[in-house]
Write a sequence for this structure.
């Protein structure tokens, strides 16, 4: 059996950022820029008025009104030292004007206006390129695109950019015993929890869920569900990966030509994690026990997703904290214990079995116990991995 760190390293070696594609603005949210973006124009592209008011050549206070410039206009005026032009916010300031006075600071006269509060020269005129100059690098490769960035790109007149696309994920849960919540439980059945749990956890990641299915424990259904799912960038399967007579996932993956990269990690929960690849598609067959499924998802699958997104190298960030209480590792395995971290102090919850989610509901971190650590005493230094659910 391989160790946690060997497993992470194998996943790292087998994961690349997805190939860049040119996408329109409406499809960019969450994608990562695959190249630097240069401004094709300056912003603002022309001298712009910041206020509704009057544009004039700074000097005199008594001004004759000779025309109007509203947003979208581009007319030129011959502005004398005692002239002004009515102007509105966002409109082009005529070349000969150097200042805009807001309309609240003037009084009207029969021929134009009188300034009652004289602005300093240059006031309310946004110079060309005040925000961004043409040719400047405005966004760096690796930037994650959000609403503000989409708006900014649109403002620069850019309609499409080269990005690392969002990984497409397919999810399959297996098991005859699984029953959807909301109906009285049949004898021998359990309520299905992993599908909605992994779907929910996926929402915190930068992915698109393209398929989410439940299959029964039979060879052909499992084979067929996996065949269809392999169109995704990543396939997540829950359950059916152990050694029982009705665990068909491993053989169905092999029949589908998915190459095994590892099977089983010396850890608890989540020992029988299976990881493989077909072409560029990665497959994580997560153990069906709910806490095992979620642990393997949070530690391994999310690491691969983030690297596919082009943002992070795979590496678990172990933080240092202090133990509250006492713990004995009876298993000679690495343990991911569900714990509550507060100000660097880690409290481990008592119910840690892989079939149980009760402690997960209270947790915000895994206390990581290496396989060679047998006992942890109160106040001992420990390592933990925070998570957000
Ligand atoms: N002889 C051995 N038996 C088992 C071993 C082993 O090494 N030798 N490993 C154990 C470990 S560790 C784990 S973890 C489980 C993993 O089993 P599977 O991945 O095949 O999962 P299933 O058998 O399908 O289910 C296990 C358990 O979890 C419940 N389950 C499954 N899916 C869901 C779901 N979507 N929602 C709620 N609950 C689910 C299922 O009912 C079972 O109780 O194997 C051990 N066995
Ligand atoms: O590895 Mo299994 O997840 O302990 O029950």
């Amino acid at each position: 059996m391989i160790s946690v760190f060997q497993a992470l390293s194998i996943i790292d070696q087998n994961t690349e950022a997805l190939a860049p594609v040119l996408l329109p603005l409406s499809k960019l949210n969450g994608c990562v820029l695959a190249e630097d973006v240069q401004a094709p124009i300056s912003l603002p592209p022309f001298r712009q008025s910041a206020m509704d008011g009057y544009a004039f050549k700074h000097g005199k206070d008594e001004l004759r009104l000779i025309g109007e410039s509203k947003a979208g206009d581009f007319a030129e005026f011959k502005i004398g030292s005692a002239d002004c032009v009515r102007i509105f916010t966002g409109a082009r300031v005529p070349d000969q004007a150097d200042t805009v006075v807001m309309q609240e600071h003037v009084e009207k006269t029969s021929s134009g206006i009188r300034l009652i509060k004289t602005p300093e020269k240059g006031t309310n005129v946004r110079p060309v390129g005040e925000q961004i100059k043409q040719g400047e690098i405005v966004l760096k490769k690796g930037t994650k695109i959000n609403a503000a960035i989409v708006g900014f790109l649109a403002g620069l007149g850019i309609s499409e950019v080269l990005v690392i696309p969002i990984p497409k994920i397919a999810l399959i849960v297996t098991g005859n015993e699984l029953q959807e919540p909301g109906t009285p439980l049949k004898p021998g059945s359990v309520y299905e929890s992993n599908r909605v749990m992994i779907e929910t956890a996926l929402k915190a990641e930068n992915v698109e869920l393209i398929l989410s299915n439940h299959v029964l424990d039979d060879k052909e259904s499992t084979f067929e569900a996996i065949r269809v799912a392999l169109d995704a960038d990543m396939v997540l399967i829950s359950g059916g990966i152990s050694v029982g007579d009705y665990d068909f996932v491993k053989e169905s993956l092999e029949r589908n030509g998915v190459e095994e990269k590892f099977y089983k990690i010396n850890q608890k929960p989540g020992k029988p994690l299976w990881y493989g690849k077909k072409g560029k598609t990665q497959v994580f067959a997560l153990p069906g026990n709910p806490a095992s499924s979620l642990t393997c998802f949070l530690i391994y699958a999310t690491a691969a997703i983030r690297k596919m997104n082009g943002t992070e190298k795979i590496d678990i960030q172990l933080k240092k904290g202090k133990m509250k209480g006492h713990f004995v590792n009876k298993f000679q395995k690495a343990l991911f214990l569900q714990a509550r971290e507060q100000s660097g102090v880690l409290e481990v919850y008592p119910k840690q079995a892989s079939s149980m989610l009760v402690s997960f509901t209270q947790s915000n971190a895994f206390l990581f116990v290496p396989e060679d650590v047998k006992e942890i005493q109160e106040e001992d230094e420990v390592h933990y991995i925070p998570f957000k659910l």
User: Anything to note?
Assistant: Residues 268-271, 287, 289, 292, 354 surround molybdate ion (ligand 2) (CB under 6 Å). Helices lie at 4-13, 147-155, 194-203, 219-229, 249-255, 290-308. The longest strand covers residues 334-342. Residues 21-40+137-164 form a domain with the Molybdopterin biosynthesis moea protein, domain 2 fold (CATH 3.90.105.10).
